[in-house]
Specification:
Length: about 425
C-alpha cells in the first residue's frame, strides 16, 4: 500500500467502513495510527488503541477496563436474543465473579495431561491429511489442511463423537462472524440460528455425559459438568454457553494460525529456506527441533495475529497513553497493530522465525489471557512442522483468498501444489 493511501485511510479511520485494500494489508494504516494518533477517537465515540504499552496497561487494569458486554451487546443483538445470552454468559465477556469461576474450571480441565493426551491423535490426524494431500499432489491449504485440524482436536477435547462434528465449523464461523464491527441482517440471522442449533446439540451431549461420565482427569466435559471438588459448579446455561465458547475459541483462531503460517512461508522464501535448514541441522535433537518450531509459531502469531481486535469498557474515567477516556468509554484493543510496534519489536515488519524474546499479544494478556494457548501452540507446532517435513517444496498455485474480516485474520482458500 502506498504511504499516501495509508495516511488517507488512517485520517478517516472507521472500523465500520473499512476499504478492501485495508483488509488485504492493514499494517501500513496501523503504523500511521500508532505514530500519529495512538489513542484515536473514533466517529462512533469509541477509542482505538494501537501501542503495545497502552494495550498492556489496559489488560493489566481489569478493575477499570471491563470485559462484561451486557451494556454493549443489549442494543447490538437485543436483550432476548440467543446471541446476547451466549456472549454475555461466556467467560471471555465477563468480569469476576462469573469469569473467575468459569476460568478456574476450564483451566482445571485443560491440564497438561489433558493436552498431552491429545498429541498422539493430533499427529495421526495431521499425517492422515498429509497422506491424502500427497496422493493428490496438492489441494487447498485451508480446506484440506488448516481447517481440518482444530475441529477434530477441540471435538476430541470435549468428546464430541466423530460423526457428529460436521456442523461444528459452520456454527463457529456464524457465531464469531456476528462479532464483526458491522452486523449485517444476514450475519445476525446466521449467528442466532447457530447458537440455537448448538444449544440443542450440546443439551443432548451433556445429558448423555451426565449419565455416562468419563474420567474427569482426562475428559474436559466431564470435569466441567462435575465442577471442582470444593463444590464450584456451573449452572446448565453457563455450562452450555461455555462449551459453545470453547468449541468456537479453539477453532477459527487456530485454523488461521496454521493457514497464515503456510502462506507467510510461501511469501518469505528466504525465511522458509532458513527454517528448513535449521530443522535439518537439528534432525537428531527432537528437543531442539521443538524449540525451533515453537519460536516460529510465536513469530507467525505476532506477524499475522489471527485475532486482531479485542474490546473493553471503562467502568470509570481513566487515562491511557496521555489521553483522558470518559467513564463508559468503549475501547478497541488492536492486537495486530501492537504486535508490530517498533518500541518493542526490532524490524517489526520483518518475519524473523528465530526472533528472541517475542513479547507479542496474540493471546491477549492478564486475567483473560487465552486459556487454550498451550493447545494452540501444540497444534501449530505439529501441523506446521509435519507439513514442512513432508512437503518442503510446496508452493501456492493461485493467489490466496482472504476471509474479509477485520477481527479474525485469515484465508478462506489457498490452493497449492506439493512440488514447485
Ligand atoms: C492461535 C489460536 C488462538 C488465538 C490467537 C487465541 C486468542 C485469544 C485471545 C486474544 C484471547 C483473549 C480475549 C480477551 O482478552 O478479551 C483468548 C481467550 C480465550 N481463548 Fe484463545 N486463542 C487461540 C486458541 C484457543 C484454543 C485452542 C482454545 C481452547 C481450547 C482457546 C480458548 C480460549 C478461552 C477459554 C479464552 C477466554 C479466557 C478468559 O476470558 O479468561 N483459545 N484467546
Amino acid at each position: 500500500m502506498a504511504p499516501e493511501r495509508a495516511v488517507a485511510i488512517a485520517s478517516t479511520f472507521d472500523l465500520r467502513a473499512l476499504p478492501p485494500d485495508f483488509l488485504a494489508n492493514p499494517y501500513p494504516v496501523y503504523a500511521v495510527l500508532r505514530e500519529r494518533d495512538p489513542v484515536r477517537a473514533m466517529p462512533d465515540g469509541s477509542w482505538f488503541l494501537t501501542r503495545h504499552a497502552d494495550l498492556v496497561a489496559v489488560y493489566r487494569d481489569a478493575a477499570t477496563f471491563s470485559s462484561d458486554k451486557h451494556v454493549e451487546f443489549a442494543p447490538k443483538y437485543g436483550p432476548d436474543s440467543p446471541l446476547y445470552e451466549h456472549h454475555t454468559t461466556s467467560l471471555v465477556f465477563n468480569d469476576p465473579p462469573l469469569h473467575t469461576r468459569v476460568r478456574k474450571l476450564i483451566m482445571g480441565a485443560l491440564t497438561r495431561r489433558a493436552i498431552a493426551d491429545l498429541e498422539p491423535g493430533l499427529v495421526a490426524l495431521v499425517d492422515g491429511l498429509l497422506d491424502r494431500i500427497a496422493a493428490q499432489g496438492g489441494g487447498d491449504l485451508i480446506e484440506d489442511f488448516a481447517a481440518a485440524i482444530p475441529v477434530e482436536i477441540i471435538g476430541n477435547l470435549l468428546g464430541v463423537p466423530h460423526d457428529e462434528r460436521g456442523p461444528l465449523r459452520g456454527w463457529s464461523l456464524a457465531i464469531l462472524g456476528a462479532l464483526e464491527p458491522v452486523l449485517t441482517p444476514q450475519r445476525r440471522q446466521e449467528g442466532e440460528r447457530a447458537v440455537l442449533d448448538m444449544l440443542d446439540y450440546l443439551r443432548v451431549l451433556v445429558a448423555h455425559r451426565r449419565r455416562h461420565p468419563l474420567d474427569p482427569q482426562r475428559d474436559v466435559l466431564t470435569r466441567l459438568i462435575q465442577g471442582e471438588a470444593d463444590g464450584e459448579r456451573l449452572t446448565e446455561t453457563e455450562l452450555l454457553h461455555n462449551c459453545i465458547f470453547l468449541l468456537n475459541a479453539g477453532h477459527e483462531t487456530t485454523t488461521n494460525l496454521i493457514g497464515n503460517a503456510l502462506v507467510c512461508l510461501h511469501e518469505w522464501p528466504q525465511e522458509k529456506t532458513r527454517l528448513l535448514q535449521r530443522l535439518h541441522d537439528a534432525r537428531h535433537q527432537p528437543e531442539q527441533q521443538e524449540a525451533i518450531l515453537s519460536a516460529a509459531v510465536d513469530e507467525f502469531l505476532r506477524f499475522e495475529s489471527s485475532n486482531q481486535l479485542g474490546n473493553r469498557r471503562a467502568l470509570r474515567a481513566a487515562e491511557v497513553g496521555g489521553v483522558r477516556l470518559p467513564e463508559g468509554a468503549l475501547v478497541t484493543l488492536c492486537i495486530g497493530a501492537t504486535n508490530r510496534d517498533p518500541a518493542v519489536f526490532e524490524h517489526p515488519e520483518r518475519l524473523d522465525l528465530s526472533r528472541p524474546n517475542n513479547r507479542h499479544l496474540a493471546f491477549g494478556f492478564g486475567v483473560h489471557q487465552c486459556a487454550g494457548l498451550s493447545l494452540a501452540r501444540l497444534e501449530g507446532r505439529i501441523a506446521i512442522g509435519r507439513f514442512l517435513a513432508r512437503f518442503p517444496r510446496y508452493t501456492l498455485s493461485a493467489p490466496p483468498v482472504r476471509g474479509g474480516r477485520a477481527r479474525f485474520r485469515g484465508f478462506l482458500r489457498a490452493p497449492f501444489v506439493t512440488e514447485a
